Amino acid sequence: MNQTSNTPQNWSPKHTKMPNLTPFSKLDKTFDRASELKAFDQTKAGVKGLVDSGVAEIPGIFYCPPKEASNSIPEETHLGVPVVDLEDIDKDPFKRRQVVDEIREASETGGFFQVINHGVPVSVQEEIINRVRRFFEQDSEVKKQYYTRDYTKSFIYNCNFDLFSSPVANWRDTIVTVMAPNPPNPHDLPQVCRDILFEYSKHIMKLGELIFGLLSEALGLKSTHLVDLDCNEGLRIIGHYYPSSPQPELSIGTTEHSDDTFITVLLQDNMGGLQVRQQNKWVDVPPVPGAFVINVGNLLQLITNDRFVSSEHKVLANREGPRISVASFFSTGRLPTSKLYGPIKELLSEQNPPKYKEITVREYNIYFAEKGLDGTSALPHFKI
């Protein structure tokens, strides 16, 4: 894990010729978005390739209406994302009840909270951020062998999973690997991040079980309830690389969306830029050293019958960069499965009838992926 990279951070792309993409300022009726998306995708160099080529304006395919791209600062100072301290919750029953109450309130209102003293070593957190950075900052020709839109592959590198379906291309590049329930062959993973992906996943699986236990108790259920439902069965590790944007006011790091997961465990570096919608205001989720951001996913909102909410969130583009984040998605994704998930029966009553159909995780994920990040939730599609 102490492997060093011989690639300078700001290397010059010698082998990748970037296409002549139309700058935003020159968009007109002749702009062929589909052709330019295809040309950009075929470079396999991502947004970082554009930045390394020296673009001074964002290409039109990345143009985001200013009201979406801009940072909305809330006037209500009481809005924010709580930081929950997990220290000693297995030793002190009073502290555990207090933590469960905090998580319940956060999950029922904003759907977001941060956790500290969670047991994951800071050294492991720093190393996964460092390794994701190194993957993206190695020579483009080395990365290209992993560039694909085939999500059956063990390791995926691309730019925008929904590049050809979303209305706005996000200013970010991404790597994805499924670590559970079927871990990949280590040799299918890039050497630069191979070892840390396995070590990090081991810690995240343990943390996920802890969080699911606290969420179960917050619902008034036994602590193993969500784990017994296999909510922690699947784990995808997703590394995002947000290069600096020459026009951050016209671009977006990640379009507003809610996650296709039971929960997401996010590690962000110190750059900032993550925002969550609360009471129709965009609220910053500031980086807290050593903390993980936990957010309720759409699948957890579905099985709790809307008791817990999966809030919309987005990432702003920034003139400074890069920003690195690592999202751990607890979901089996598109893996074939016959297991049905619907509102938890223990939470239902005559006053609270089921609002959603029973569906498979695969069914949800396929619909989510086809819809793309278009600024709307996928949940209404599955309502009764």
Written description of the protein model:
Helix 4 crosses helix 7 and helix 5 packs across helix 7. The N terminus is likely disordered. The protein has ten helices and twelve strands. It has a single domain, classed as B-lactam Antibiotic, Isopenicillin N Synthase, Chain (Jelly Rolls, Sandwich), CATH 2.60.120. The radius of gyration is 21 Å and the shape is globular. The strands form two sheets. Strands 1-2-10-7-12-5-4-3 form an eight-stranded mixed β-sheet. A four-stranded antiparallel β-sheet has the order 6-11-8-9, with no helix packed on it. InterPro entries: DIOX_N, IPNS-like_FE2OG_OXY, IPNS-like_sf, Oxoglu/Fe-dep_dioxygenase_dom. This is 1-aminocyclopropane-1-carboxylate oxidase homolog 1-like.
Counting DSSP H or I runs of 4 or more residues, the number of helices is: 10
Per CATH, the superfamily is B-lactam Antibiotic, Isopenicillin N Synthase, Chain
- Which regions are unreliable across 5 or more consecutive residues at pLDDT < 50? 1-15, 70-75
In percent terms, what proportion of residues is strand?
Answer: 15-25%
Succession of helices and strands = HHHEHEHHEEHHEEEEEEHEEH
Largest sheet, spatial ordering of strands? 1-2-10-7-12-5-4-3
Number of strands: 12
Structural class: alpha+beta
CATH class: Mainly Beta
Number of domains: 1
Overall mean confidence score, pLDDT:
92
Which second-level CATH architecture applies? Sandwich
Query: What is the oligomer described by this structure?
Result: single chain
Instruction: Report how far apart the termini are.
Output: 49 Å
Keywords: Iron, Metal-binding, Oxidoreductase
Protein name: 1-aminocyclopropane-1-carboxylate oxidase homolog 1-like
InterPro entries: DIOX_N, IPNS-like_FE2OG_OXY, IPNS-like_sf, Oxoglu/Fe-dep_dioxygenase_dom
Organism: Cucumis melo
